[in-house]
Specification:
Blueprint lengths: L1 H8 L5 E6 L4 H17 L4 E6 L4 H6 L7 E6 L2 E7 L4 H16 L2
Parallel strand pairs: 1-2
Antiparallel strand pairs: 1-3, 3-4
């Protein structure tokens, strides 16, 4: 998964990575929120779900200590990270704000 993961986050389209686990209640609560964000933003965002139990190497690499942890990448760079459930509006604002900041550099 590391090679594919590195390829995916290295693109010019922002990638929101959801580090989660099957047994995690808040992770299940976040799933419909992520669906809403994807529907609203369409091709302007890619959302990738990573199960920390199945991908311990990535969880270790990114120092994931609790789930859900969300990380926003673009061009291989980490732009933002947050822990816990968020609303679709909040997430969309984060994605738009950090993507614009990164683009204007």
């Amino acid at each position: 998964m590391n090679e594919n993961f590195n390829e995916i986050i290295s693109g010019s389209i922002p990638v929101l990575v959801d580090f989660s686990a099957e047994w995690c209640g808040p992770c299940r609560m976040l799933a419909p929120v992520l669906d809403r964000v994807k529907k609203r933003m369409g091709d302007r965002i890619r959302i990738l779900k990573i199960d920390v139990d199945e991908n311990m190497n990535l969880a270790t690499r990114y120092n994931i200590r609790s789930v859900p942890t969300l990380m926003l990448f673009r061009d291989g760079k980490l732009l933002w990270s947050g822990v816990g459930v968020m609303t679709a509006d909040s997430l969309e604002n984060v994605i738009n704000n950090y993507s614009q900041i990164f683009t204007s550099r």
